[in-house]
Amino acid sequence: MPLLLYLKKHSFVIAIVLLYVLADMALTHKEIYLLNLLPLVLLLVYLAIARIDLIYFLIVLFTPISVQFIEYFPSSPVDFAIPTEPLLFGVLILLVYRTVQNGLEDRRIFNHPVTYVILFYLFWLFITSITSTMPFVSFKLLLARIWFIAIFYWLAVLVFKKHNNIRVFIWCYTIPMLLVIGYTVIRHLGYGLFDKDAAHFVMEPFFRDHTSYGAILAILFFALGGLILNRKSSLLNNIMLWMTWAMVSIALVLSYTRASWISVLFAAGILVLTLLKIRFRYILAIGVIAIVYFTNQRITIIQKMERNRQTSSVTLSEHVQSISNITTDESNLERINRWNCALRMFGERPFFGWGPGTYMFKYAPYQISSEKTGISTDFGDRGNAHSEYIGPLAESGFLGSLSFVLVAFMSLMTGFRVYSRIRDKHLKQMTLGLLLGFITYLVHGALNNFLDTDKASALFWGITAVFVSLDIYLVELNPQD
Fold first, then answer.
1. Please, which of 10, 126, 264, 454 could form a disulfide with 81 given CB 3.0 to 4.6 Å?
2. 117 falls within a domain
3. Residue 64: is the preceding peptide bond cis (ω within 30°)?
4. pLDDT per residue over 368-402, tens digit each?
């Protein structure tokens, strides 16, 4: 009798479940499997409401192994990363709803200087999307940038309020990245482990090319290094950490990504200055002096570079030497071709630019025959401007480039300030590792740009969120401050 009363009380729910099962069976019989995803969708919705931090970590976990939709549906007019970007969009809607209902969860995040410059960055993207020569392309990029920043920065700041979650964040990205590394190395073995040409594509479909793959590995190289320094870890944990770091290091070498190698060496130099306890303002001053010096000596430097005839090679030492070859190395020459095109586009539309995301569709007419290489195309259909700093000049004008520089500068300044204030040695070391990893991306960004991808955005905005979260909640960690 109690069973009958229970069934009667929950008859509506039971009826819904039975209808779902019958409908799913009928569609499955016709080889339509869409309803099979419904339980997973409902679980994700429940987690997004009850434990949104778990959804954040789930998205980070999926990011290294996400693939582009267009890889499987080449005729699709739109492209996005699956499964991460649909999840990001869904969480964005939830965040907007929660903010409308309850207001800002912590106004200190909104009032932080880094948030101010990020909002300026997004505001200018919005303005230049309105004035864009291709509004659909620009607003699509703007929307993607919004959900990257909303989840990987705004939500992450709240998640990292529990500073132990910073370690979880690093591991959630690293573990699936190890799968990508294993897959890449196994494919590479099939062509010959030191085959430089194969290194350009063996990471597909998870990464589109070796440069983005190398950029991520450079960040993780230092992020994991920060974890290794924790002497409180058990012997087993230390062994696992060292093995993971070794795998990332080997993969970084085998990526044949010269820009990543440069960025690691640069970050290592910053590490030395930091360990010598040289303040951030002095490091910044050294950087400014170096920029001024190289600018004044640019003609002499270019003349020396023009005498370098070493091209990309399977030999690591020769491959490193080819970095400064701007005479015969096609990769370097094509990058210069793209930069010059961006500068010419900037010269024509210096204030609003051509519109976010439009460079690849507009740069072809700005190529000069004398600057073209064997990998140039008359249609200009092979990618972007190869710079996080020069690309925005063409797409969003001077303020577009300035807004990104401000984001980078304020994030760095916050990171160094937080590092100097932390008392907990392990947290301090972990922060230093992330700070150096962040610097590798800023250096790499001079030669390539990947913030339109989920893989780079998860780390770039995530590390920025770590700095801001520690800056806001550090008093709770260090009550004596």
1. 454
2. yes
3. no
4. 887 777 667 655 555 778 889 999 999 999 999 99
